[in-house]
Amino acid sequence: MSAKPYRFNVGVALFHRDGRVFVGRAIEAGPERVFPGYEWQMPQGGIDPDEDIIAAARRELLEETGISKADYLASTADWWAYDFPDYTPSGHKLEAFQGQQQRWVAFRFTGHDSEIDLTATGADFSPEFSEWRWVTLEEAVAGVVAFKRPNYEKMARAFATFSG
């Protein structure tokens, strides 16, 4: 049993008008190791102390995708945890954590694809994605690394009504 805490995190399900969701090809950057064939994930990130969950989701969405035009749809009430796999490069900012506990927020994208910018910046920002695409919820679940998949399955059930 690890004595490390879980980091508070928010995941973002961004729905296109046609019901598909945004996923980005993750750039390997530490404990959240990227495995070939499972590089696709939704925006996510840490929650600052005393930060509102929806505000955190909007901030992460903007930092990772440049997207600011999105209408709030819903958020999950429960925290869902996942452990990092046995891989942590020394000195990485997340090595102090066992894993992450997440809540998820759903938004409807109201902008245009041309506005998506994976080089958007924020505090302590480094790019998360090398490319992006719109996929079905099922494809989003299938395309993510195995250790995150249970949370993606819960998210897909929670937000299924927005995909149709």
Describe this structure in words.
It is a single chain. By secondary structure, this protein is an alpha+beta fold. The protein has one domain: Alpha-Beta Complex (Nucleoside Triphosphate Pyrophosphohydrolase). Strands 1, 4, 5, 6 and 7 form a five-stranded mixed beta sheet that branches. The protein has a three-stranded antiparallel beta sheet with strand order 3-2-8. The longest helix is centred in the middle third of the chain and has 13 residues. The model has no long low-confidence stretch (mean pLDDT 90).
The level-1 CATH class:
Alpha Beta
Radius of gyration: 15 Å
The CATH topology turns out to be Nucleoside Triphosphate Pyrophosphohydrolase
Number of distinct beta strands: 8
Q: What order do the SSEs take from the amino end to the carboxyl end, as H and E?
A: EEEEHEEEEHH
CATH superfamily: Nucleoside Triphosphate Pyrophosphohydrolase
Choose one word for the global shape: globular
- Residues in helices, as a percent range: 10-25%
* Poorly predicted tracts of residues: none
Q: In total, how many domains does the architecture comprise?
A: 1
**CATH architecture call:** Alpha-Beta Complex
Major pleated sheet: 5 strands, mixed
The overall average pLDDT, rounded, is 90
The end-to-end distance, rounded to whole angstroms, is 42 Å
What percentage of the residues does DSSP assign to strands (E)? 25-35%
Helix-strand category: alpha+beta
Multimer state: single chain
Instruction: Tell me the number of helical segments per DSSP (H or I, 4 or more residues long).
Output: 3
